[in-house]
Specification:
The complex is a heterodimer of chains A (about 110) and B (about 120). With about 110 residues, chain A is mainly beta. Chain A contains no helices and eleven strands. Chain B is mainly β and about 120 residues long. The chains are: A mainly beta (about 110), B mainly beta (about 120). The interface between A and B is medium-sized, with 27 and 27 residues.
């Protein structure tokens, strides 16, 4: 089975711009979770989508949003970028159903805001 | 919300020695505890996990123990090899029974493990 894929792998944006990141989960997985990883704050949960619905949300401002499509692929969007948004953005997929605890991560998208 | 503390932040061992990383969590409702290994330029890789109805789980050179009463769990790596060098993260989740926390992993700050040949 192919693993979790994320595109693009690297991105450079300017403050004030917006960005969209994409995640394709493992075939058959219906849950996609997004995390932000920075040296200072570590790995922090952004949100989780299951069957096209946001099921869980972390403590991030409304500039961070996401969605999930009927094929389980997910996108996250960050509007009005700030320097502090520079980070590795990771998505993880799981079956999302009862007992399907395991989350498998993609390689991440490295976002640099200048 | 859940808080996970991980120690030590760095760990240096000689090849063949054992390595132990410890984590504590705050939310007694947490019932799923995975461990991830992250190598440079890669995403975290799930290496072992344990659920709250189990006290210990082993997979070859890796083992995890869980003490629900004390709210702590540990990763044990025996016969370490240079390729074990990486950053290791513990995490906790409420799993399905955790209701709104399902799908949300709370991570520790990570341990940089270096295995010297």
């Amino acid at each position: 089975k192919a693993g979790v894929t994320q595109t693009p792998r690297y991105l450079i944006k300017t403050r004030g711009q917006q960005v969209t990141l994409s995640c394709s989960p493992i075939s058959g997985h219906r849950s996609v979770s997004w995390y932000q990883q920075t040296p200072g704050q570590g790995l922090q949960f952004l949100f989780e989508y299951f069957s096209e619905t946001q099921r869980n949300k972390g403590n991030f401002p409304g500039r961070f949003s996401g969605r999930q499509f009927s094929n389980s692929r997910s996108e996250m969007n960050v509007s009005t970028l700030e320097l502090g948004d520079s980070a590795l953005y990771l998505c993880a997929s799981s079956t999302g159903d009862r007992g399907g605890y395991e989350q498998y991560f993609g390689p991440g998208t490295r976002l640099t805001v200048t | 919300g859940e808080n996970v503390e991980q120690h030590p932040s760095t760990l240096s061992v000689q090849e063949g020695d054992s390595a132990v990383i410890k984590c504590t969590y705050s939310d007694s409702a947490s019932n799923y505890f995975p461990w991830y290994k992250q190598e440079l330029g890669k995403g975290p890789q799930l290496i072992i996990d344990i659920r709250s109805n189990v006290g210990e789980k082993k997979d070859q050179r890796i083992a995890v123990t869980l003490n629900k009463t004390a709210k702590h769990f540990s990763l044990h790596i025996t016969e370490t090899q240079p390729e074990d060098s990486a950053v290791y993260f513990c995490a906790a989740s409420g799993g399905w029974a955790g209701g709104t926390s399902y799908g949300k992993l709370t991570f520790g700050q990570g341990t940089i493990l270096t295995v010297h040949p």
